[in-house]
Fold this protein.
Amino acid sequence: MSEPKDCLPSHAYGAQTYPRFMPVGDAALTVEFGDVILAGIHAEVLALDMAVAAAEVSGVTETAPSYRSLLVCYEPAEISFGALVARLRPLLTRPAQPAQRSPRQWTVPVLYGEPSVTDVDEVAGRLGLSPAELVAMHAGADYVVYFVGAAPGMPMMGGLPTALHLPRRPQPRPRIPVGSVVTAGSQATVISIPMPSGWHILGHTPIRPLDLSLPDPFLFRSGDTVRFRPITRVEYDDLTARADRGETVVLPEAAP
């Protein structure tokens, strides 16, 4: 990969050391901190995200954190790739400023194994667990929303117990419904829009991660914590009916 004339050392582009800066088209770059899902790596991502916001770097139009990297979008007419790398490097060692919005803790009600197609029995069998053990382990874990993406409003979470890690299905389903509670590998999420997916469906929740009728359409945000609470079919039907009427069926608490 050739380097722009205004920038810098080759290790800014593709070396195996982290953090590293990689171009994304001609109007964005990504700052990569690693290649695995780890809380410590994600903390570095969020720290840089907050530092960039606090520094008000000229030409930066948007940032988007992920599990392991920060996407930084910029206006090339205002700042070049090389100049932006030079501005970002000092921010890597800047102490993180307090987040503008405090993380929240959610308790998400889930009807496991119902009301439509799920993979509880299959997943439990492949993992050597009973369905009850699978549900207890999934609902007993604490999850962290690393970022919201992949689909609009979808909370991409870590924290799935190692004993529940399982690769995606070999044959994705062409469409799974909103509210599906799914897992794949070490990740967990709640489906926000009808979509194809090879993730394993463990249950369904009446809450909706995306509601375009609200001023803030995304229910979750990066840094939130989540626990899943098993519910009965009666409670599921009641909460679903209330959600369909536009009622708020779950509220967050302040994270400890």
Summary: The chain has a mean pLDDT of 88.
